[in-house]
């Protein structure tokens, strides 16, 4: 991505909507077409899903909603701030590492933990790798992720390769939250609890 190109959340969202309007569908296609980083595309796509301008058809595949198509065709500006009045309450999608990681998982067809770190981690996240390893383990045990049989080769000669995962229980935008005392993952989208003992 060239410096200065497509900077700003609102501009990123318009760019992604425009690409979807031209028939692109997958994250790989968007990355190949847009002068944006994959991480910026994931973030913009997540915001568009929250705004209900884009819907996720299946893992890694997206399309404009009727509302998104109307917005794009009307040439309306995109505001980068939150929708609706500020109430002082925390929204459903807090900007935490696990929320960003969950959003990245939902946007990817298949992924390794390294893929998610690249897309979701920031310098302020501390030990993001350890946090992600624990979270992925919980998601697998609770039935949200499946471990695929094939591995991606690692860089070290003694490496057994990296595990590949796929989301198999996608209940919505909000990341499942672990409740340590009860040893359950609480689904904030459906209100269900899933044991991960």
Any key phrases for this structure?
Arc Repressor Mutant, subunit A; WH_DNA-bd_sf; alpha+beta; 197 residues; three-stranded antiparallel beta sheet; 7 helices; single chain
- Beta fraction of the residues? 15-25%
Strand order of the largest sheet: 5-6-7
What is the number of domains?
2
Distance between the termini: 43 Å
The geometry reads as globular
Largest sheet: 3 strands, antiparallel
CATH class of the largest domain: Mainly Alpha
- Report the order of strands and helices: HHHEEHHHHEEEEE
Low-pLDDT stretches are 1-7, 81-92
Radius of gyration: 17 Å
Structural class: alpha+beta
| Helical residues, percent | 25-40%
Number of strands: 7
């Amino acid at each position: 991505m060239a410096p200065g190109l497509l900077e700003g959340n609102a501009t990123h969202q318009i760019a992604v909507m425009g690409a979807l309007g031209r028939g692109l569908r997958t994250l790989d296609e968007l990355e190949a077409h847009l002068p944006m980083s994959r991480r910026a595309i994931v973030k913009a796509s997540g915001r568009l899903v929250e705004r209900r301008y884009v819907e996720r058809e299946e893992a890694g595949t997206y399309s404009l909603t009727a509302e998104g198509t109307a917005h794009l065709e009307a040439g309306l500006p995109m505001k980068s701030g939150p929708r609706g009045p500020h109430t002082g309450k925390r929204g459903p999608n807090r900007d935490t590492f696990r929320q960003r990681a969950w959003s990245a998982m939902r946007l990817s067809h298949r992924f390794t933990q390294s893929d998610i770190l690249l897309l979701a981690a920031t310098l302020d996240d501390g030990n993001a790798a350890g946090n992600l390893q624990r979270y992925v383990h919980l998601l697998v045990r609770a039935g949200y992720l499946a471990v695929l049989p094939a591995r991606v080769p690692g860089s070290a000669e003694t490496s057994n390769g990296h595990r590949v995962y796929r989301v198999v229980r996608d209940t919505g935008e909000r990341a499942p939250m672990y409740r340590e005392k009860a040893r359950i993952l609480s689904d904030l989208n459906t209100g269900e609890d899933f044991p991960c003992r």
